[in-house]
Prior knowledge:
The chain has helices spanning about 10-20, 50-65, 65-75, 85-95, 110-130, 160-165, 205-220, 230-235, 240; strands spanning about 1-5, 25-30, 45, 135, 145-150, 170-175, 180-185, 190. The protein is of the alpha/beta class. Strands 4-5-6-7-8 form a 5-stranded mixed beta sheet. β7 and β8 form a beta hairpin. The radius of gyration is 22 Å and the shape is elongated.
Amino acid sequence: MTDYLYDGSFPGLLTCVYEHYYGDRASGIYTKENYQQTLLNTFRVVETDEEKANRVAAAVEKKISGRALRSAYRAWLSSVPGREMIILNYLVLGFRKGPSVDSLRGEEAVFALQSILKKISVEKERMLQFVRFSEMGSPGHEILYAEVEPAHDVLELIGDHFADRFSTEAFIIRDVERNKAIVSAGGSWYMAEDFSPDKLPEFTGEEEEFRRLWRTYYDHIGISERRNEALRRKFMPLRYARHLTELQG
Length: 249
């Protein structure tokens, strides 16, 4: 049994799945930068191999289902510790049981993966609810901009929704923790890695006034005697609240 170290990409993870079957069995799968070696564990670095990754992806779709491959990818987007081995165990079981694997909720491998998928689904819905855009730029060159801090890497899962909703406008949604962004214009979008906000334009004058009015409205409709900060934090963690216009000072 050997610990596998990979580059943190999904093709890299699928390469580890390949090596698990055709090389040493994986005792754990970790990203290179997060691995802590011990005297008891042996490890090997698994370089991403697109051909091997594609073979595994094709095998999952053929022997299990396309849904299983999508589920594995969504689970990989999570920040759940040990997600790589959860995905591996799910796929190993899937190769044994076939398309019926997702119905085997009593199996630990299935339960663990579906628990991650539930977290991803909840986080995606929260992003759809709590994204707040601000207008930047100059007349005729406006762009909508929003910052988010999702617990899981769900940015790409909300791209289609906002591209459809703002099909005639340009916008950017930036994940400040992962420093990546959805960049969209004219109804199409792409993911920008290593996105820097340094060159973004200033807020428009109308935006500054709108933000002031929105905060004033929020303050006036609230009933101070019924304010419960602990309850609010329970339903809206700080990572969401600090990016809401109405809650900014």
